[in-house]
Design goal:
By secondary structure, the chain is an alpha/beta fold. It has one domain: NAD(P)-binding Rossmann-like Domain (Rossmann fold, 3-Layer(aba) Sandwich), CATH 3.40.50. 43% of the residues lie in helices and 13% in strands. The chain contains 10 helices and 7 strands. Helix 1 packs parallel to helix 2.
Length: 283
Amino acid sequence: MGKLTGKVAIVTGASRGIGQQIAELFAAEGARVVCAARTLNEGDHRMLEGSLARTVALIRHRGGEATAVTADVSSEAECIALVQAARDAYGPIDILVNNAALNYYLPTETYPTNRWMRCFAINVHAPFILSKEVLKDMVPRRAGAIVNISSGAAIGPGRGPYQDQAVRGGVMYGTTKAALERFTQGLAQEVAHHGGISVTAVSPSQVVPTPGTIHHKLVTGIDDPKGEPPMLMARAALLLASEPAEKVNGRVTYSQQILKEYGWIEEAKGRGVSIQGSGYSLV
C-alpha cells in the first residue's frame, strides 16, 4: 500500500517540471491525482515543453489514476471550478499542492503593472482561493494537507554587496513567495485547532532544472551539476503531505533539509541511488 492510497490530490502546474514530478510520485503512492494547468496538449504553450495530457498518460501507463483539468488559476472562477471538477471526478479533496507559479524577469522600473498583478494572482491569490475551497472538505473531516511550493527567493538579498542575479528582476517573484510563506504559517495557525490538517511550504535547496528555469537561463540544462533533481522536491512534498499534521503543520522548509531530517537521503544513498545532477527519473 502506498503512502497516499485512497487520497484525492490536486496538483497545480502539473504539466511540467516540479508539478509533473509531484503528480507522478503522488499517483505512484496511490493517490488519485487531479493534474491542473493551462497547457492541455503538447505544443499549446508557445515556449515550454510539457502538457497535462503527457503527465496523465505517464501516470496511467504506470498503473496510476489521474485526470487532467485545464485551469487558469489567475481566475477566481476557474480556481473554484477546478476544485469542483476534482470533487466530481474523485470525491472530497485530501491534498492540495499549490505549485503553479509565474515570473517575468524584469527590473522594477520597467515592470508592467498588469504583469505584476497577474503574477500575484497566480503565485499568491490562487493558493488562497484554492485553499479556501479545499478546506470546505478538510475541516468537517478534520483531515487534509496543503503543501505550498515556495522558493529561496522568499529570503531577501540583504544589504549587499549584491550579485548580478539579485538585480536581474527577481523582486516580484521573491515578493510573492515571501507572501506565500507568510500565508502558509498564518493558515497553519488558523487550522491547528481542527486537528488533522497541515499547511506547509517547501522550497528547493538549489535551482531545479525545469523547462521554465532553463528557458530563463537560471541553469544550463537538465544535467547542470549546480541543479537539484526535481525528484527531491517531489519527495519532500510527499513527506509533508503524508506525515501526521501534528508533526509538520506550519513547517516552512527546504527539500534537502527535510529529507535529511527524515533520513530519506541517507536511505537513498544506501540503495545506490544518486541524488547528484538533475535527471528527471523518479525514485
